[in-house]
Amino acid sequence: MKIQDIVLTPVAFADPPLLNVMGVHEPFALRGVVQLVCDDGVVGLGESYGDLAFLDQVRQVIPELKGHDVFDLPGLQRKIAAVLGKAVFSDQHGLTGGFSNRKTIATVYSLFEVACLDAQGHFLGRPVVDLLGGKSRDAVDFSAYLFYKYGAHLGAEEDAWGEVTTPETLVGAARTMIDRYGFKSIKVKGGVFEPDQEIAGIRALAEAFPGLPLRIDPNAGWKVDTAIRVARELDGVLEYLEDPTPGIEGMAQVAAQANMPLATNMCVVSFDDIEPAFRQRAVGVVLSDHHFWGGLRDTQALSKTAECFGVGLSMHSNSHLGISLAAMVHVAAATPHLTYACDTHWPWKTTDVIAPGSLAFVDGAVAVPDKPGLGVELDPDALARAHEDYVRCGQTKRDDVTYMRRFVGSFEPNTARW
Ligand SMILES: O=C([O-])C(=O)C[C@H](O)[C@@H](O)C(=O)[O-]
Ligand SMILES: [Mg+2]
C-alpha cells in the first residue's frame, strides 16, 4: 500500500476575536491539510497546523515519503527524523508549551501518521478506532470551550456571539453553546482579565449550571501565589485547574496547596517532560493532543504512562477542522484512560473542508464513525475555497499579539502578569 503522491494544502477559515493571554485570535485560523494518494486510488487524510514555519518542515519531508508503505509507521518515523535532523519548529504564541527537536519530529510525524492510518482503514475496510485496538466507548464527550471575546473583528460587524467580557455574557455564551451541542462540562479560557473577575465568571457559571464540571485555563497567566489563592477560592467549584502558572516547578508549588487536580498542555508537552513533572507531582491531568504528542498511537502510549502514575488524561484543542475532530474522536474512543471530556474549538467555526454529516454532537458527544478510516470525506470545493481564503487573507502564522496591539496599542502578552 504505497504512497504515490502527497498533496499539502494550506487553508484558512473564519475565526472570531477570541481572547487569551497572548492577545486575540485573528480573522482567520490556519490549518494544513494533507492527502496521501496511494495505490488503488485510496486517499489518506491528515490535518495539522498551518503556520508557515510548520508547513516548511512538512514540505521538506514530502519528497522522501513518496513510495513509502502506509503500513510501515516505524519506517515513516525514521525517514521524517532523518530529514528533519536537529530542526526545531516553534510558534510565536507558545500556548502549547516549549519546542524541542523531539516535539518537532513528533508534530510532523503526527500529520502523516494520521493520514497513513486513514489510508490503512480504507484499505482494510475498518475504522481507525479498530486499528488502535478497538472502541472503549461508542461516543466521545467534549466540553463547552468558552472564551472571553470582542464583539467584532476590526472593521467588521458584530458577530453572532457578540462581546463576552462579563459574568453575565459568559453565562449567555455558555447557554447558547450548551443548547446547541448539549455539552455536559465547561472550560473557560482565562488569563484575560484580573483573576477576581474571572473567579466571578466561574462562580456565575456554577450558579447557572449546577453540577456541571467546570475548568479554567489562564495559560500560565498567574504567579504562584495568585494561582494558590484562586485554587483556594474555587475549591469545590472546579473539576480541574489548567496551567495556572508557568513551568513544572511553579505548577508543583501550586499543586501542593490546591485541592483540585492541576491539568496541563503547557508544561508536559513531550515524553521528556514526564519524569520531572510526575516526580514533582506537578500535574494531576495531562491534556493529550495527538498533533504534537506524535500521533494517535503515541497518544495511547502517553495515556498508559499517565495511568501508571495515577495521572488522568484529558484532551487539548486548537482551532481545527473536521479531519482533526475525527482523529480526536477515534483516538479518544480507543483510549480507556481518557475519561475527561475533551476540549474542542468546533463551535467557533462556521465552515469546514469535509462533507457535512459524518460528525455530529449529540448530548455533548460525538459518535465514533464506523465507516472505513477516519470516516470523513474531503469536499474538494470546500477545500479549494478554504485555500483561496488562505491566499487572500495573507496570514502566514498565528500572531495573536500583533493583532491585539491593533485593538490596544500598549498590549503586552500576559506571562504570569498577575
Ligand atoms: O488549552 C489551551 O491551552 C488551548 O486551547 C490553547 C489555544 O491556543 C487557545 O488558548 C486559543 O485558541 O486561544
Ligand atoms: Mg490549556
Automatic annotation (TrEMBL):
Q: What class of enzyme is it?
A: lyase
Tell me which UniProt keywords the record has, alphabetically. Answer: Lyase, Magnesium, Metal-binding
Q: Per its Swiss-Prot or TrEMBL entry, what cofactor is needed?
A: Mg(2+)
Catalyzed reaction equations: D-glucarate = 5-dehydro-4-deoxy-D-glucarate + H2O
> What Enzyme Commission number(s) apply to this enzyme?
4.2.1.40
- Pathway in which the depicted protein is active: Carbohydrate acid metabolism; D-glucarate degradation; 2,5-dioxopentanoate from D-glucarate: step 1/2
Q: Which residues form the active site?
A: K189, H316
Q: Does the keyword Lyase apply?
A: yes
The GO terms this record gives for MF are: glucarate dehydratase activity; metal ion binding
Tell me which residues make up the Mandelate racemase/muconate lactonizing enzyme C-terminal domain: 167-261
Give the protein family: Belongs to the mandelate racemase/muconate lactonizing enzyme family. GlucD subfamily.
PANTHER family hit by this protein: D-GALACTONATE DEHYDRATASE-RELATED, GLUCARATE DEHYDRATASE
Record's protein name: glucarate dehydratase
- The organism is Amycolatopsis xylanica
Q: What does the organism's lineage look like at the top?
A: Bacteria, Bacillati, Actinomycetota, Actinomycetes, Pseudonocardiales
